[in-house]
């Protein structure tokens, strides 16, 4: 066991002990040249599968607003909503680092307000780090000195959609690229433990990754980052629209769900579900006394028989 990890007390499906991923462990992965896998997740079942698949970092992203709650952008999701989903993810995840995304408005006022809101994600939902968008250097410093690990997020920051005039690739000019590099440097210096780079040219991401000691995690930033993150629903075709250029679909959960649900509906409509084998039965002794055509009085299930079925 290394100094940057600690056992969870659990075991993987193969029986080997699980080594928890921590923020320092991510930096160690960068030092060792090991790619970091990251994915968003928002509920118990999916995060459990993501964790069991060995993903290193699970982000309860504010993309929750769009892919789970059906909003047009990420701006309207609230602290309470992200807290609610982070708790569910926390209950499922044993190995991955759990990061909560701070929603729009929860850190855009004073630094003190930002710290107060971040503390809620750690204290009330069990997050192990928070992610914030933009070069908020002072806030990163304050969070770090409050013992809250921070993942920064630069480039195409979706909470800036109105300022950017849409979801556009950032840092295309050398001036913008230099500013981005300076912001990344400043966040790392202020204590950020990792940096998400979104929607920027590959060359810009590569330069930042090469310069910083902290890991970069790319999304639409090319293959040279220390790790990659995608939105769970993009990966599995659950987003109901054409994917962005950087998305690779690794599965078609939409087709799987449609097919399964249609099959179920058809079976119900044709009385093919449930079968006799999928039904509970009276114990033999009770069945012998039971009238097959119950009168109104007998229509109420006999409580003793019910207990027999359930035991
Ligand atoms: O909310 C989100 O999904 C993100 C991305 C980095 C994946 O911030």
Structural class: alpha/beta
* Outline: elongated
Strand content: 5-15%
- Low confidence ranges: 1-7, 296-306
Order of helices and strands: EEHEHEHHEHEHEHHEHEEHHHH
CATH superfamily of the largest domain: Phosphoenolpyruvate-binding domains
What is the count of DSSP helices, taking H or I runs of 4+ residues? 13
Bound molecules: 3-methyl-2-oxobutanoic acid
| Domains, number | 2
N-end to C-end Cα span = 45 Å
Q: How helix-rich are the residues, as a percent range?
A: 40-55%
CATH architecture of the largest domain: Alpha-Beta Barrel
CATH fold label of the largest domain: TIM Barrel
Strand order of the largest sheet: 3-4-5-6-7-8-9-10
Instruction: Tell me the radius of gyration.
Output: 25 Å
Please identify the top-level CATH class of the largest domain: Alpha Beta
Tally of strands? 10
| Largest sheet, strands/sense/barrel | 8 strands, parallel, barrel
């Amino acid at each position: 066991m290394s100094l940057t990890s600690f056992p969870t007390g659990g075991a993987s499906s193969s029986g080997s002990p699980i080594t928890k991923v921590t923020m320092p462990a991510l930096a160690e992965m960068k030092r060792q040249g090991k790619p970091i896998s990251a994915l968003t997740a928002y509920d118990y079942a999916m995060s459990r599968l993501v964790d069991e698949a060995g993903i290193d970092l699970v982000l309860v992203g504010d993309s929750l607003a769009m892919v789970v709650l059906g909003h047009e952008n990420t701006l309207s999701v609230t602290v309470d909503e992200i807290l609610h989903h982070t708790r569910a993810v926390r209950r499922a995840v044993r190995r991955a680092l759990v990061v909560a995304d701070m929603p729009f408005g929860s850190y855009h006022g004073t630094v003190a307000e930002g710290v107060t809101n971040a503390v809620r994600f750690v204290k009330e939902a069990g997050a192990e780090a928070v992610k914030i968008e933009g070069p908020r250097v002072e806030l990163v410093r304050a969070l770090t000195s409050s013992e809250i690990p921070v993942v920064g997020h630069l480039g195409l920051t979706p909470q800036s959609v109105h300022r950017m005039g849409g979801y556009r690739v950032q840092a295309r000019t050398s001036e913008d690229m230099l500013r981005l590099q300076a912001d990344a440097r400043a966040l790392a210096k202020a204590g950020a433990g990792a940096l998400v780079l979104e929607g920027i040219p590959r060359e810009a991401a590569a330069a930042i990754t090469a310069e910083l000691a902290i890991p970069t995690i790319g999304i639409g930033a090319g293959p040279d980052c220390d790790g990659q993150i995608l939105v769970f629903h993009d990966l599995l075709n659950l987003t109901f629209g054409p994917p962005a250029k950087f998305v690779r679909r690794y599965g078609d959960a939409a087709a799987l769900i449609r097919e399964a649900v249609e099959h179920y509906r058809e079976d119900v409509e044709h009385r093919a579900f449930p079968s006799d084998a999928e039904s509970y039965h009276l114990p033999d002794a009770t069945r012998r006394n039971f009238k097959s055509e119950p009168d109104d009085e007998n229509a109420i299930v006999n409580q003793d028989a019910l207990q027999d079925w359930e035991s």
